[in-house]
Amino acid sequence: MPLDIYLNVAVSGLLTGLVYGLMALGLSVIFGVVRVVNFAHGEMMTIAMYIAIVLFSAFKLDPLVMMVPIAGVLFALGYVMQAGLINPFISRPEHSQFMLLVAVAIIMVNVLLLIFGPDARSVQTSYAFDSFAFGPIIVDATKVYAACAAIVVSAALFTFFKFSSVGKAIRACADNYTGALVVGLDVKRLYALTFGLGAACVGAAGSMLAIIIDVTPPLGPQYTLLAFVIVITGGLGSMPGALLGGVLIGMTEALAGLLFAPSAKSMFAFAILVLVLLFRPQGIVGKRA
Amino acid sequence: MSQSTHALTRRRLLAATAAATATLAAPAIVRAQGGPLKVGVLLPRSGYQASIGQDCFRGVELANPILKDIGLGELQIMSADTETNVDVARSRAEKLIADGAQLLMGAFDSGQSSAIAQVAEQKGIPFVINIAAAPPITEQGYKFVFRNFPTAPMILNDAFTNQKEIFEAAGSAPKSVVFMHVNDTFGTAMAGGIGGVMPRHNMPYTIKETISYDPAARDLSVEISKAKAAGAEALLVVSRINDAILLTREMVKQRWTPQGVLSMGPGWYEDQYLKTLGKIGDGPLSFVPWYDPNKKLAKALEAALAAKYPNLDMNTNHVYTFEALLIAADAYKRAGSADPKALADAIRATDIKDNVSTGPGISFDAKGQNVKLKNSAIQNRGGKLVTVAPKGATNASAVWPMPAYDKRG
User: Fold this and answer.
1) Which of A172, A178, A147 is nearest to A247 (CA)?
2) Which helix (H) or strand (E) segment is B285 a member of?
3) What is the CATH number of domain B153-290+376-407?
4) ipTM for the complex?
5) What global pTM score does this model have?
6) Contact A131 B272 (CB under 8 A)
């Protein structure tokens, strides 16, 4: 097989992985601070995808342009969910939180089915079929735009947590819950803010993925599982880990599909997960508990 | 006037009541003998096959007025959703029979149809299959199960015959193909069948590489990279709807236009494919159980569909679902009774020449299979579907090779 095929596939995997990474970043942010595992993560992303599709079909608004407003809508959804639904469960056993969020996920899938039906829907932008050629390497234009947007959103999030006072307060809550309470931080509000930020990441990722893949309501659980594979591989609670995990899983799937049977490419992503769990259970860049 | 003449005696009251009861009851008995046949329709109207189940149901919605027009009685439809689940299909079949269904029809999918066939046979209620291609269903020795749909080997045999007819008419043929198939029950069964059937047809091409992929795949860029790298001249494919769209998009993005796409399954001709892809969706050839556009009843069904669903093109789902009901109504008329055995005997003796699907008509062999069915080759052209093979059942000739994706404006 010629070398340019490997390069094409590796670049494609890298770009897809960056968007996967942004999607999983939201899950990692929420768990890293609130210590709640969001089992409705993929479903929230599906909601964002449907918002992008509705905006495009009704008003011809490009999903990449609408990424920020959609992230805003998801932020509001996440904030309200945490403040109104999840906060009372914070001190309850983990299985209660699990059941709550699984129930929320099922409701979301079924409401989407009721509203949009089972058929796949997509966004047909003017650049939907474009590609860039760099010598023998042909790169999908939509993936390039989505990956660039993923890098920008991730950088903005890192900057927020590193330099803003609210970001520092959220990190303080994550590092020492009791200490945060002692110094007078409004932990419940910060938790809601964090859940909102995680949901906003999912909203941005959903908006980008809407230009790459078709959406159906049952897509949610698949992406919840994918997000888990990525964050556990990268390190649950670690933001750089989520991005690294996304890129690793994206490239593994792509190259495994090329070198072995494409139908078995997901198997390799899970094989990496098993290896990480065996030899580095905290994830590639995660900290040992 | 004597009192005895007019007095309402107990004996007169009893006689009058009996007479009145008999008079009132008579029409009910007549209705029971001449009323519509109760048909239990089982389709996957929710779950992952929901869109196809709902599409099949459009064939049910169109049936009664047409059946009435051609002199057959109307049917009383009792609808049940199999939820794309074999166990639900079985239990819904049992419930329909318990609720009074006199004949069952369905169920698009081979697994669900097999489960319903077992129930129908056990209860002795005729079951007419609209769509299901797995050969074993009519190899079990069932007496109440009938299938008016080609089996997988029939589909493959006709597909290769029609391909050769198209290549001959076009004056060119690919020397090699890459074979891509979805890695589910249907895809692997068809892949296995191709290995057995293709050598018998002396095809002009060889299969350079076989690529299977996950039915739930979100991205098929690697698969198309691999297919393109194989250097084959055409793409032979067995897929579903979502992957057909993904494959087409990737071919465009990776700037690869094969001479043609030869599809031996669903996906490439479906309404969703045509509407989603627009002019990019033009060109693929699908080798499928279809309808003869020149038949009178096909035109009637097409007109009825256009009137009720102006944006939809007629397809396999509508045609074979309608024909299953046509078989039921025709048998009921000839049997003159809803007795299950009489109905089954009448279905076995079916000989419908004026039908919709491609081929000489509808009749069944001893196993309950319509072996006379012929499959068509259809091509997407300008957002519509035209039938390009077999000879005598076409309304256009094939465009081969298909226009390059980057030259479509």
Assistant:
1) A147
2) strand B285-289
3) 3.40.50.2300
4) 0.82
5) 0.78
6) no
